[in-house]
Amino acid sequence: MNTFLSLSLDKQSSITLVEQLMQAFQLAIRSRNFPPGGKLPSIRGCAKMCQVSASTVVIVYEQLIADGLIKSLPGSGFFVVDKPLNYASVPKKIKKAMDFPVDDYWLLTNVYHSFTTYNHFGCGWLPSDWYPNKEQSSALRAVARQNFSANGYGEPQGYLPLRDYSSSYLTERSLYVTIDNILLTQGASRALDAISSAFLTSGDTVLVDEPGYCNFLSSLLMKGVNAIGVPWTDTGPDTTAMARILSRHKPKLYFTNPWLHNPTGTCINLNVAHQVLKLTEQHGVRIVEDHVSGDLMPPNSLTLASLGGLEQVIHIGSFSKTLSPSLRVGYVVANSATIKKLTQYSI
Prior knowledge:
- By secondary structure, the protein is an alpha/beta fold.
- It has helices at residues 2-5, 17-30, 43-50, 54-66, 104-110, 133-144, 160-172, 188-199, 214-222, 239-248, 270-282, 304-308, 336-346; strands at 70-73, 77-80, 182-185, 205-210, 226-233, 236-237, 253-256, 286-290, 313-318, 330-333.
- It is globular and about 65 Å long.
């Protein structure tokens, strides 16, 4: 612990001292160098050992408190929380030491935190200089000059020109759709929520990737939906395990993120994709394909929707991953009956 506190922060780095110290504390807490319930050094003590100002430490401690990693006890000091979120329930094999362990605990505490020295593409963020920042600024200025006063509520399925553009874009990627097959949503997460609300009720069973997108798993839990994990391998879901689960249970849907999978970053093998489509069709299970990072795939890449069709697959996309993480614009692609039903849950 003293070794950690005596580290020399790089004051010439483009990363601020606050960010450097914040990341160091996060790593120390997750690797148990600061165990649950353990006391942290005082603000002045930490500032002296790390050779930074007391105000820097104050900012870091306040952020750690906001993230739920530490707590302040008046008159006693700062302590690591006894059970940070659901970390105690994470299997030991996932808790192995690594720079940034990608588990439910890590995702829940970091999904909205921007790291400048670490990028894990399966988790949904890219280096800030990869985004078209200048073009976005120019586009926003152009939008601000337009008069939208007469537009009213607009189209129930979303902004028509964007749906028109998306239909052409998706057709170029072998997903032949019209504007009536597209529903715009406030991000891919909202699309997932709308689908689960429209087609599931408390007590229903669904299949999900294991590991998978933890925020959505929490949403299913709150809805009372029984989510059964299909083990994810380096070539996609374990189809042997999937066949066994499908025979034993009667899931309504299979939610999967097969391309640039979150959180592993791997992609499904085409042979496995065909097996998944065949298995789910045999058991009457519709697939919800979360293709949130699809724009990062090569232009000629296939999808489960393009392979299986919109009767079997509900496809979800997003503009957030390539334009800006803060741009919450997603879309659902499905057959007309599904889009009509989902529109009722999105207005």
